[in-house]
């Protein structure tokens, strides 16, 4: 499967707990951090939940 690169571009301060836990599950703990994951429905669902905090990089 293809990989997808995700970058956290906004701070998690003031976000609901669910969104903070989603960022933790993606491996994003600091602004500017980039992680790679397999492109699958579970990861895409997590990205959809925090789409205002992250950016998809190709």
Task: Give your account of this protein's structure.
This protein has a single domain (3-51), classed as Ribosomal Protein L30, Chain: A (2-Layer Sandwich). Helix 1 (17-26) crosses helix 2 (41-49). The protein has a three-stranded antiparallel β-sheet, with no helix packed on it. The radius of gyration is 10 Å and the shape is globular. It has two helices and three strands; from the N terminus they run βαβαβ. It has 58 residues and is an alpha+beta fold. The model has no long low-confidence stretch (mean pLDDT 96). The longest helix has 10 residues, at 17-26.
Keywords:
3 strands, about 60 residues, alpha+beta, about 25% strand
Describe, in short, the structure shown:
The protein has 58 residues and is α+β, with helices and mostly antiparallel strands.
**Strand order, largest beta sheet:** 2-1-3
Pattern of helices and strands: EHEHE
Termini separation comes to 14 Å
Radius of gyration: 10 Å
CATH class: Alpha Beta
CATH topology: Ribosomal Protein L30, Chain: A
How is the topology of this model organized?
Blueprint: E1 3-8, H1 17-26, E2 34-38, H2 41-49, E3 54-57
Antiparallel strand pairs: 1-2, 1-3
Helix pairs in contact: 1-2
